[in-house]
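Escalated from tier 1: magnesium ion holo job.
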Amino acid sequence: MTASTVDLTRRAAGAILGSAVADAVGAPYEFGPARPHLTLAGTAADMVGSHTWEPGEWTDDTAMAVPILRAAADGLDLAGTEAQDRVVRDWRDWARDAKDVGIQTSEVFRGMRGDDAAAARDSALAVHESKGRSAGNGSVMRTGPVGLAYLGEADGVARVVAAARGIAALTHWEADARDGAALWSVLIHLAVRDGRVRLDDALAAVGEEAGARWGALLAEADGADPDSFDANGWVVHAVQAAYAAICAAGIALDDPATHTAEAFLRVVEECVRIHNDTDTVAAIAGALAGALCGVEAIPAGWRELVHGHLGLGAEELVALAEAAVRGGEAA
Ligand SMILES: [Mg+2]
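Tier 2 regenerated the structure:
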């Protein structure tokens, strides 16, 4: 591997594992009150578990990211039918005996007539139309792997946008859910590719209208208390809370000197202190923070304990991330 490939893979692995460990640390606090004084040690002791979750066990956020990661690791085009059909089938296999499936995602799966991506998309549209909204945070919580696709390609950023919007729409039809997933995926893609991100580049990639909207939303979050975004089950507040946590931890996207192990720990700490959808905000923030800080920033104690469905752990996630970077080519 060349030096730059080493950097790509350590940041790609950071995105995937960063999201998974943050999800697992946050899991026991989901739907709880704010915990402004909670501190993390950066050891296995932070993964306390609950009556639902074993210590270190990840939740739906990571469980739904894994099929996307697997498709990318097998070299499938994430914007294509083959990849999306497989992702939908893997999600539904998981959902059959999962401990938790998001409300909106469950409704979409229940309403499907057929088992492929087209059936999921039709059902997502029907759910959206029956409620007039469908912008839960579920499209962004699982989008990290999309940022790992198309890394070597000249039009990689545009392809990430298209794939992220398409995968979001499998369950979350509303524009905010699709645009939020596109923006977060591009941020991760640029972080992995370059080791730093100019926010304006990411905003430009999602188009003028969405870029202006999300630029204003992120500007509002920069410097704000992550817990001030009340409705963090909504994609907009979830992304704002995650971005606020990254900023509060001292990370500047464009300044690699701020991309440290200490900052990564603080991002997760900021997330687990907030109320309500703690694990999902943590999973969202952990993906971008992990991409920026790299896999070596993730505490060893977390890495050892993190695990989830299909018997996967950190080692398997890192191997899949590396394969995704190679676009499915053999090592
Ligand atoms: Mg969750």
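Residues 264 and 289 are 6 Å apart (CA to CA).
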